[in-house]
Each structure stands twice: as structure tokens, then as C-alpha cells.
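Hi all, a correction to my earlier message: I attached the wrong file for succinate dehydrogenase. Here's the right sequence:
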Amino acid sequence: MGIFESNAPKGPLAEKWTNHKNSIDLVNPANKRNIDVIVVGTGLAGGSAAATLAELGYNVKTFCYQDSPRRAHSIAAQGGINAAKNYQGDGDSVYRLFYDTVKGGDYRSRESNVYRLAQVSGNIIDQCVAQGVPFAREYGGLLDNRSFGGVLVSRTFYAKGQTGQQLLLGAYSAMNRQINRGKIKSYNRHEMLDIVKVDGKARGIIARNLVTGELERHSAHAVVVASGGYGNVFFLSTNAMGSNVTAGWKIHKKGAYFANPCFTQIHPTCIPVSGDHQSKLTLMSESLRNDGRIWVPKKKEDAEAIKAGKKKPTELSEEERDYYLERRYPAFGNLVPRDVASRAAKERCDAGFGVNKTGEAVYLDFSAAIVRYGKEAATTRKISNPSDAEIKKLGKEVVEAKYGNLFQMYEKIVDQNPYETPMMIYPAVHYTMGGVWVDYNLQTTIPGCYAIGEANFSDHGANRLGASALMQGLADGYFVLPYTIGNYLSDDIRTGTIPTDSAEFDAAETEVRERLEKFINTKGTKSVDHFHKILGKIMWNKVGMARNAKGLKEAITEIKELREEFWKDVRVPGNTMEMNAELEKAGRVADFLELGELFAKDALHREESCGGHFREEYQTEEGEAMRDDENFMYVAAWEYTGNPADAILHKEDLDYENIQVKTRSYK
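and the right structure:
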């Protein structure tokens, strides 16, 4: 076990980033054109980084497995992006955004990185407005804001329920400008399968052309991994089906530490599982909790009647409903942080109050909001003594303007009209706060290899606040990495082009080729999805919302056995030198089978509850998370040594000098 540092600059917190930018080395514009950078992943983090680096003059190569950067999973983000602009005049500030983020993460994030994130958040909005991102606006024309969980101010900028898509179009447009200039070479339908190190430094990647099956060598002076999170280790999640951990896991196996893998977020507002046939889950934006009230029946017999189809939720009076978040957390109500809301929903359903056929769902009800907005609209339009029908009609129009596309999506999937009957929701795996360890400069423990966005661990601690994922991705890509990578690349201005015919590239390509051929040659009897589904059930049942030592030990053993069976009995049809979707999946699931074991190992070692990591042995009498700050206030960064079971723990101590560490309370 080792203890190591974040390389955060010294000095007052509010001045760290400014002083750091003033002191780091830069690359002359004339020298940038001689330096190559590879960016793996073209979502918000990768796309914004690629566009900005190319604009600065670097030669950039981008890689994504999708057929276009526009299909990155960032487009699925619905609710919004945080920034400390204080447009509402409700007391927001850079410090308050910083404090809310650290508190929301249950005091398990790095202070210096989070403060920098809050500092640059306002710049992101200015950048995106300049790009033409159509943020919602108030009556007077100013940008509108709404609230998200875990805060007492409105700081979330949004574009209906399509915020991620609109922000990605902005980054994609900036990328296209650089592609047209020849500064970005875009390799779509390519997947990074290994990193290449020369003299200990990241100097390129091995990528597979997913159309032809060919392996390609690409060299660079630095490699940036922006490949998103690893939530699909659970099989069912809100992530796109192709989202994977492969790029992050490959650099982990070559020397990049993997930090806090057990810090994974369960989102409280997702469409419930309907059966074993599903391949993914659908997120309903957290923004819905601004106006939707969450409840279950007060009586178990009412819950049973609803499950049996003998009763409708609209038949229950207000007195027969338990608005349990409002009851338990009066200060924040339905806008408690995601981990708190998720555990509360699980507790109610486990107690027998769940409402769909599986018993794993609660209601998200807009009836009160429709009436409230309807009365307000009637007053605005000078309609005296409006009827109930008029009020509901006007209220529905307001709700449709705010959330219409989300309501349409729900109705298409569930075949129920959410304007007339409450939505059913249940927690699901959504975001991963853990990831590749990076220092203050976003550099991994491999020199010249950087990780940004959800691929790294740095900003969210044990729980991410809503609307902070887009903020971190664009902060890293637009405003942090372009500065910090120059400090490293300033030593490479005389290096010249990195050759790809070296022994290091030969060895890396051979290793990748042998692994692919092993998949094809196994000739087993079970599909890749067969193993992935089993892994997902192990993870959800024993490493999911609630964990305990017994279940975690069982999970470690079961995952190890499943991995051994996978390599003996997986069946991958076709061959390597062709388009082969099953071969792609096989590689990704093989990596998930290793990550899953480390995930459980990390959860077992952390003998406390914090944020999204909830150990049943460590909870208060009221069922809230019980941290152990004396023994676990650190980042757990794991070093790969050949097998997940033998991973070596390194600790980065977390020191809070500017905020008081205390037990989270949203009551």
C-alpha cells in the first residue's frame, strides 16, 4: 500500500487554479503544430477537448466506436447543466456550488478539483451560448434556471429535456470546424483496444476498425481517455448498450490506477424493470422532481390492490398517500440527493409498499403541479372563476412546455398517459463517480495519459449531484485539460513524430490480436450476453444499492468463477477480420468481468457507508449512511498487478481546509 499526492498547487483555495495557470509551462503556437494528441471518446468531454486542442494548434486524432460523434451517450443527458451564475438572485455563488458538490459527494472528493470546477462553470454557459445552444429563457429573455436535488438554489441551465443533445451539438460543431481545417482526423467506428507505452510514457494506441476488423497503430505525444463510465457492468443501466469500460480498463492494466470503483450512482427516477427481456433501462430526468411528488400508498392492502390491478392510484385520496420524501426530509423534500432518494424508494418497496407488478416501483405524481400551474395561468390570463377542467387544461399546457418530450417518452415505453395517471419510477444504475485516478492536471499515473469526464474519478466523491456530469465533462474539455496538457507537452517540442514500427507497438498489437483470436477460437456454447446478464444480476443483488460483507465476499467468488467459465465456454461467431458485433461485445464483457471483481473488492474494503456506497452494517438508527471519517477519508486507488484479487491499494488522503466536515443532513 502506498500514499501519494494529487499535485494540487499550494496557496488559498480560490487562487489555486489562477496561480497554477500562471506558473505552468506552455507550448509555443509554432510548436503546437508539431505535436500530436489522441482523444478516445467524442462525447461532451472528448469532443470539447478535441475541438479546443485543435483550435490551439495541436494535431488531434479522435476515436469513437459510434458511426458519428453525435451518437455519444452524452446526448442522453436530459435535465441540465449546473453553473454558479446566480441569475435567480437566490444566493448562489462559486463557493456555494463548491460546497454543495463536496457535501453532495459525502465529503469524499478532492477539494481543489471541485473548487476549480465551480470556478469555471460560468465560462461553460458563456461558451455554449456563443455556440448557439438553445437554453431555455425566461419571459424577459434571460437564461432560465431550475432546481436539482441536494441544493437550495436554482442553478441548472437546461434545454427542455434535451440538454445533453444540444450541448453535444455545440461541441460537435466545434469539432467539425477543426475537421474541415484538417486539424482533427476523425476515426469513427474505431475502438481503442490497448495503449502503447514507450519509455514509460503513453505514445499511442492500438485501435480496431469495427467495419473491416483491421487492427491499426496510431501514435501521439499524449493520449486522452474520455470514454465515459462503467455502469454497464450491471448489464441493466441507463447507459447506452455500447457504453463500456474497455479504454479505461486497458490503461489501468498498463499502469493507470483505478480509483473508488464502488462509488456508483443509482438514479432514483428511472422507468422500472418490466422483465428479463430488457437490454437497458430508461432514465426520467431528475428535473421532474421539481414538480413531481413521490409517493406510495400508506396501506399495504392498497399497494397490493394496485399491483393486482384492482385499484388505480388516482382512486387514493391525499390522506391515503405517503409522500415519504417530504415526510422524512422536510427541508429538501423531493429534491434530496440521488443516493438518498434511491435508498428511500428501495426501503419503501422492500417494506411491501411498491406499486407495479414486480413490487419495485413508486409513483411520481404531477397532479398537484398541474393544478398549481393551471391556477397561475388562469390568473395571468384574467380568467375569473375557472372550472376544474379549465385549470387542468391550462396546467397541462405549462407542464408540457417544460417536460413534454419526457412525458412523450414515458408514454411510448409504458403505454400510460402521465398527465392523467402518476408515472412509475424506480432506482437504476446511472453514473459512475469512480474511475481512472488523475491528479490535479487530469493526468493518470501513466505519464502522458490523461482521463477526463466520467472516465476519471475526480470531482463527485461518493455521489454526483444532478446536472453536474455535463458541467464536469465540459469543464475538463474546454477549460482545464487544454491548459494542463501543455505543461506536459512542453517537453516534447523536439521529440518529432512518434514511429509506429517500434517493438512496443509490435508487442501491443500482437497482444491484442491474440486476445481477439482467443475469443473466436474458444468455440464455446454460451453467448456473450449470457455471461453479461449473469454478471449483472450478481452485481445488482450483491453489489447494488445495499451491500454487506457476506454478499460482497460471495460476489467476488462468483465473479471469479464466472470469468473462468467465460474464457472456457463463450461462443463468438465469425472471425476477427470482419464486422463482428459479438466480438466487440466479448472484449467489453471480458473487461467488465475483471472490473466487477475489483468493484466488489473496493466495496468490501470500505467499511463505512457514504453517498452511493451503502454498507448495511454501517447505518444510523434512521437508516442513513454512517461514514467513518477517521479511517476512510481517502481516495482508494488500485494498482493492477495481474489479477483483480491481487490489486494493490494506494491512498490519497482527503484534507478539507475550507469547509467543515459533518454528517450530511437534508432534513
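Sorry for the mix-up. DSSP finds 18 helices and 20 strands in the chain.
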